[in-house]
Design brief:
Length: about 375
Amino acid sequence: MKELIKALYNDNLTKEDLLFLLSLEKKEDIEQLRQRAYEVMKQNVGEFVYLRGLIEFSNLCINDCYYCGIRKSNSKVRRYTLEEDEVLECVEFAVKNGYGSIVLQSGERKDSRFIDYVCSLIEKIKSKTRSQQLPNGVGITLCVGEQSYNTYKRFFEAGAHRYLLRIETSNPELFAKIHPPEVSFERRKECLYYLKDIGFQVGTGVMIGLPGQTIEDLTNDIVFFKEIDADMIGMGPYIVHRETPFAIYEKYFQENKYNLYLLSLKMIAVTRLFLKDVNIASTTALQALYPFGREEGLRFGANVIMPLMTPSNYRKEYLLYEGKPCIDEFSDDCGECLIARIENINRPIGYNNWGDSIHFKRKSQPKKD
Ligand code: 5AD
């Protein structure tokens, strides 16, 4: 008990502390961890939950990652790319409902047609959404994978200001086991540095519960987040998809679901304790494991939620994993449901606000003495 309290209140957590906290198993210990993470969140970033309307605008992908449902070899997926008007409609809906930010996410493509399309989307979204409430337009986060320095620069100049690129795992050997040889750990890391250099607020994250992943790996993941000085974190449980090479882990996954869920919540809490003032998303994958998973993520120290805004007829084609919630035709408006859920746990919502990472703002401001 003493050890737990000591770790929870240690302002400079060591690797041993991180490992110890991630290994907690008793219900009451995990509850203490949750409460402390909530307190640290409140002190550093406040209780507001910020919304990013998530638009999955294309499921075309050049990669063949062994875990992902939209990998290029999955021929069962009907491939789509939203028309510009369809994206703009989603954006309009987001802005009308007071979401200050959107996320444009897609599979990875590097051809110039794609890059030009993304740039023009960003520009159009920006010019259409400037208003009294949002003088600089809606905040745009991009999540379109590994690109060249120049491409990232073009995206930034077009008006995107945040970028999500998960490292997936900070263990290079494990990274190599879950990706085809063309996808390289070093290159992924390099991209994160490009993004930072250009001036993006940079988000990264990992999948939790990957086959072969250990608690030590997850501990190192949290240390990695600090080392690269991430501004935002988005992570969630790894969930098996039948049409992937990792379908062989289905049984193992089904048997360990509950532990995986708890581990994902502990990862959020421990990341909050260690990084303090970053934005942490409570991801959809958490809700795939447990109906109230996303609310629980917020209770464990997350402060960002991404309501799904992809038009409902495309949603079932963007299944990175199985059991993804909100994909039937009745959940057109995920925002309303999510907002009710957030209000249910008594968290205020940061409407009409970009909800930028406080960590990023602190870094960018010269220190006052
Ligand atoms: N389970 C959980 N998360 C997944 N992702 C891709 N496939 C899966 C899966 N089977 C995550 C990856 C990627 C993000 C967009 O989705 O971490 O970076």
